[in-house]
Write a structure and sequence with these properties.
Elements (H helix, E strand, L loop, with lengths): L5 E5 L26 E5 L5 E5 L10 E7 L4 H17 L4 E8 L2 H8 L8 E3 L9 H4 L4 E2 H4 L10 E2 L2 E2 L2 E2 L2 E2 L1 E6 H6 L9 H14 L3 E3 L7 H4 L5 H5 L21 H14 L12 H10 L2 E7 L3 H10 L7 E5 L10 E3 L1 E2 L2 E4 L6 H12 L3 H5 L24 E3 L11 H9 L7 H10 L7 H18 L4
Parallel strand pairs: 1-5, 4-5, 13-14, 16-19
Antiparallel strand pairs: 2-3, 6-18, 7-9, 8-9, 10-18, 11-17, 12-14, 12-15
Length: 464
């Protein structure tokens, strides 16, 4: 059998969607039988059916389709090289095809209502943890897989893991060092007030856009949510405490402090002139050239911002990366070490053995460090060089405390019931629209409305 690796580029139209889970149909999705499903007993005495990746040469022939959000030519070529390496491990028995998708999150969560979502895919963030088993094959018990992989907690339900991260990330703020120097900003702003003062100084002394939101791409605004831990300074808060907080969006809360920068920067004319046309590609280009000063995004984009600087005729050293500021002086600066997307295996895959082997093989590649500029999902990974000085700033890296027992999946249920959309762009765009005067409401009014919906959902679900 001739070995080959195919790349299918699917450029799809962006479709408007409502809140979390709104496009997912309730339906039974039985797991296809394969010769790779075994039973493990967890430490709680539960029997769990788990997929087992076979050893070299043990797979049946077949082709798997891997859905990916990688769309750039050079990065796709690197993915193809890894697929060829994978093929060499199991000579003559399989083909890996990539389906590259723009607007990945929105498009794939639509496809989950059918059986047409590939063999291996990045699990959409809006899939409720309690419903993972409807769409994805169990990969193993938490006890087993947590010995090898980090940040698998929130794609685990009832001690069963459904996805392995493609990388481990942390979120901060990209900035142009030359613009900061021109504005006379010395040192890294540590508090929200210091950061806002820096943005104002940039506006007054340079021609750069102080804070570029990339509003038009929508997903870019969801990048801010990963800073909830920094705003809370408490690892229990994002997944556990937040689900029981009746003041979750009110003044002084982590969410209020987190999005205050977004509103105040918009209200003070410190963002792009026309947010409706502001894209992530423009953010990279403008920040590299010094036409924009800062942009909030996770560490996976480090390489892309650095590449943009080189393409602009500069060196990658012009790009800096700072921790998200804390609400008050004296607060610990805790940065969340969390997962990127996770690879999962479709319950509809006819080649789950090949798919499972690919998921575990991919975690061992250099994707995290080379293409995502982040930390390997394999335990013991190191920070990228651009962020090593964060330790000197007093930053502590840690994961969020996972929800357990009755709290597992509770945050998802509250988010869906309330229609707040923690991982949706709606209320973030609302905040910016209000800030620039396109909506007749204040920041406090927006946050009070979100809090009202949150507490009503808590009451509806009987949460204390």
């Amino acid at each position: 059998m001739k070995k080959w690796t195919g790349i299918v580029l699917a450029v799809v139209l962006c479709l408007g969607l409502t809140a979390c889970g709104g496009t997912q149909k309730e339906q039974d999705m039985p797991v296809q039988e394969t010769n790779t499903i075994e039973t493990e007993t967890t430490e709680n005495g539960e029997n769990v059916e788990t997929g087992k990746a076979p050893q070299g040469g043990e797979m049946r022939e077949g082709t798997i389709t891997v859905l990916t959000n990688v769309t750039e030519g050079d990065r796709l070529q690197k993915m193809q090289e890894w697929a060829e390496e994978f093929d060499d491990l199991y000579p003559g028995v399989q083909t890996v095809e990539f389906e590259s998708i723009d607007d990945y999150e929105n498009q794939v969560k639509i496809r989950l209502s059918s059986s047409d979502y590939g063999d291996v895919l990045l699990i959409p963030n809006t899939v409720e943890v309690a419903k993972l088993s409807e769409y994805f094959v169990p990969l193993g018990s938490y006890e087993e897989l947590s010995e090898q992989y980090q940040c698998i907690d929130d794609r685990t339900y009832e001690n069963v893991v459904y996805g392995i991260p493609v990388s481990v990330q942390f979120t901060g703020i990209f900035y142009n060092k030359n613009v900061f120097a021109e504005a006379g900003i010395e040192g890294i702003p540590r508090t929200i007030d210091e950061f806002m003062a820096a943005l104002q100084k940039i506006k007054e002394t340079t021609d750069a856009v102080p804070l570029y939101t990339a509003y038009a791409d929508q997903w870019t605004l969801n990048q801010w949510e990963a800073n909830t831990l920094t705003a809370a300074a408490e690892p229990d808060y994002p997944y556990v405490g937040q689900a029981h907080d009746r003041n979750n969006f009110l003044k002084g809360s982590p969410n209020y402090n987190l999005y205050r920068i977004m509103y105040e920067a918009s209200a003070q004319g410190l963002i792009e002139d026309d947010p409706a046309t502001a894209t992530f590609d423009e953010a990279k280009r403008m920040l590299a050239k010094g036409e924009a000063a800062t942009c909030v995004c996770s560490s996976w984009a480090i390489g892309q911002f650095q590449e943009a600087a080189v393409e602009a005729g500069l060196t990658e050293e012009v790009i800096g990366y700072m921790p998200y500021p804390v609400p008050e002086e004296g607060n610990p600066q805790i940065v969340r070490l969390g997962r990127d997307y996770v690879n999962g295996v479709s319950v509809h895959s006819e080649h789950q053995d090949i798919a499972l082997a690919w998921v575990k093989f991919f975690a061992e590649t250099e994707y995290a460090t080379e293409l995502s500029s982040s930390v390997s999902p394999i335990k013991g990974g190191e920070l990228p060089a651009i962020a090593t000085d964060w330790y000197d700033l007093g930053v502590e890296f840690m994961p969020c405390t996972p929800a357990e027992g009755d709290d597992q999946g509770l945050l998802d249920r509250l988010d869906k019931e309330s229609e707040v959309g923690l991982l949706e762009p709606d209320f973030k765009q609302r905040i910016i629209d209000a800030g620039i005067g396109n909506r007749d409401e204040t920041y406090d009014e927006i946050m009070e409305d979100l809090n009202k919906r949150w507490t009503e959902a808590m009451d509806a679900l009987g949460v204390e």
